[in-house]
Specification:
Helix content is about 35%, strand content about 15%. The chain contains 22 helices and 20 strands. The strands form five sheets. The protein has a seven-stranded antiparallel beta sheet with strand order 1-20-19-15-14-9-8. A six-stranded antiparallel beta sheet has the order 2-10-11-3-4-7, with helices on one face. A hairpin with a 5-residue loop joins strand 3 and strand 4. It is globular and about 60 Å long.
């Protein structure tokens, strides 16, 4: 249901901060990319202390809770993908879960209809059990090097001693006041007495969040998943839930982060691994690349409209499959192997013509696909942040963290915003054909995601790229586009994520305003793309990649000026 993305794009403000692009290459001793320079520094501090990429990624995620509260943090969840220099890959699922009392009719009103989205978002119905702390703890238990408490210290210090409001947070707080200032706790932190957001350059503190971090440092995840803080979360959610079985302390205590099989494929001899279900991101990225394998994009050229026409067509096909089949594999049979099978992707790729658009794409029938599923009505995620880290051993970590919409549900507990991730489920349990939607709400289930943290090895088996993005359903496209730029066109990580953006949404194609793609509109129309939309690109990518001089850390240049610290 991608046409909804073309609604008025206040999404850029909702995406959250993205730090000043860093393009300086550093020796192969490690690097971090994050959506805010202060969070990135938290990760770099771990590397300087002798920590590894896992330590750096965790410290960065925790710090983002403080300085980028509109986008991610410990009130939400995420996906963690780790790849070693020897090619081993591990992916951990920290996606939020629906409470046990949830059912497929969870979001329907008294008449059995789907209410306006904002009504669902601003309700306890939208809040899933947060997963980021459980994910971080599991990743540290398995792969961390520094003491757990050391990873938490930078975030606690930022919350207790304060940080300066940048343009990105100021804009997001102003544009999303209904959620950022929904409760007194949020108003006291980020808003003035008259309801306006704290000015750019203001220093703000969050003692309640600092105390939460201090407890997490001392006690680990039980500080959040049991005791008073778990009770605070359950109480806040329950009070805003118009259903008889809201989230309980038992739901919170039962949460576990799960290792999932990584989704891997190849492209031009490069090995590419990402996150599997409940994320659709890894399958979509590998699907698009696999369908494009037969085309010589390098020969076509980076500024050739045909190159990006082919990419748009691959998107249509990959997303048709994604919409129908992707969901939580603990509840639904997801044909991961079939969707990423090179032979299947080659057949799908034959539907792509360099001369004309195929129009609206339909889902294929990969091996293992269930027969009677229906498309749902999932909205786009908006409050998301991506971070990446590489250490001196060549271990890569790609980690995408989210609270879904800007400031999540608007509900707060223990100093942080609670997610609205359950609106990533299809709020309608059945599709137009009357069949069940794979991504419908069920108790204990994890909603489908677009997040696509990805790690890449070159044909010689060397780690070369950790990449991902924010931007809801644009995430797989943004990630695949960066990989194409890096592999096909030999671009640096920074230049790869800076490429102009083109994306198919239903029968429309978004071409990024102000880029050469806009000037090539007539050529796109000649290829069959009759309905073109020219907008700023609602994306935010981040990456660490190998260049001749070492590692280059890069953040998306589109919003970099908004995160400069006054």
């Amino acid at each position: 249901m991608l046409t909804r993305l073309l609604a008025p794009l206040s999404l850029l403000a909702a995406l959250g901060g993205c730090a000043t692009t860093q393009t300086r290459a550093v020796p192969l001793e490690g690097a971090v990319s994050a959506a805010d320079p202060r969070a990135q520094e938290a990760g770099m501090a771990m590397l300087r202390q002798g920590g590894n990429a896992t330590d750096a990624a965790i410290a960065t995620m925790l710090a983002l809770t403080v300085v980028e509260p509109q986008s991610s943090g410990i009130g939400g969840g995420g996906f963690f993908v780790r790849g070693t220099a020897k090619g081993a890959v591990t992916s951990i699922d920290g996606r939020e879960t629906a409470p046990a009392g949830a059912d497929p009719n969870w979001f329907l009103d008294a008449e059995g209809k789907v209410p306006p989205f904002a009504q669902s978002q601003a309700s306890g119905l939208s809040v899933g059990v947060p997963g980021n702390i459980a994910l971080a703890w599991e990743a540290h238990r398995r792969f961390g090097k520094l003491p757990w408490a050391d990873l938490v210290k930078p975030a606690e210090k930022l919350a207790r001693e304060g940080f300066v409001v940048n343009r990105q947070l100021f804009n997001s707080a102003g544009n999303n006041r209904a959620f950022g200032a929904a409760q007194a706790e949020g108003r006291a932190w980020l808003y003035n007495a008259d309801g306006t957001p704290r000015a750019v350059g203001s220093r703000v503190t969050n003692p309640a969040l600092a105390d939460t971090f201090a407890a997490i440092a001392a006690e680990g995840p039980k500080a959040l998943y049991a005791g008073a803080r778990a009770e605070n979360i359950a109480r806040a959610v329950s009070a805003a839930t118009p259903r008889p079985k809201p989230m309980t302390v038992a739901d919170i205590a039962a949460y576990t982060a799960k290792e999932r099989p990584a989704v891997c494929g190849s492209y031009r001899g490069y090995r590419i691994c990402g996150m599997g279900p409940p994320s659709s991101g890894g399958m979509a990225v590998i699907g698009m690349l696999g369908m494009l394998e037969r085309f010589d994009l390098k020969a076509l050229g980076v500024r050739n409209p045909v190159t990006w026409h082919l990419f748009v067509e691959a998107q249509r096909l990959a997303y048709a499959d994604r919409e129908l089949y992707a969901a939580d594999s603990d509840f639904v049979t997801v044909p991961v192997r079939g969707l990423t099978d090179p032979a299947y992707l080659a057949e799908r790729g034959k539907l792509i013509s360099p001369d004309a658009s195929l129009g609206i794409a339909t889902a294929g029938r990969p091996a293992g696909a269930p027969l009677a599923l229906a498309d749902g009505d999932e909205p786009e995620e908006r409050g998301t942040s991506h971070l990446a880290a590489i250490d001196r051993d060549g271990t890569m970590v790609s980690y995408t963290s989210t609270i879904e919409s800007a400031f999540g549900s608007g509900l707060m507990a223990n100093g942080f915003y609670l997610n609205n991730e359950l609106t990533d489920f299809s709020r309608s349990p059945t599709g137009a054909n009357g069949g069940p939607v794979a991504n419908r709400v069920e108790g204990g289930k994890r909603p489908r995601s677009s997040m696509a943290p990805t790690v890449v090895w070159d044909p010689q088996g060397r780690p070369v790229l950790a990449v991902g993005a924010a931007g809801g359903p644009t995430i797989p496209v943004t990630t695949a586009r960066a990989i194409i730029g890096f592999i096909d066109f030999g671009l640096s990580p920074r230049d790869a994520i800076a490429l102009p953006f083109a994306m198919a949404m239903g029968d429309q194609v978004l071409l990024e305003r102000g880029t050469w793609l806009e000037g090539a509109a007539e050529q796109f129309r000649a290829l069959g793309h009759a309905r073109l939309v020219f907008r700023e690109a609602p994306i935010k990518a981040g990456t660490v990649g190998r260049v001749p001089a070492g590692w280059q850390s890069a953040r998306d240049p589109r919003v970099e000026s908004n995160v400069e610290v006054p």
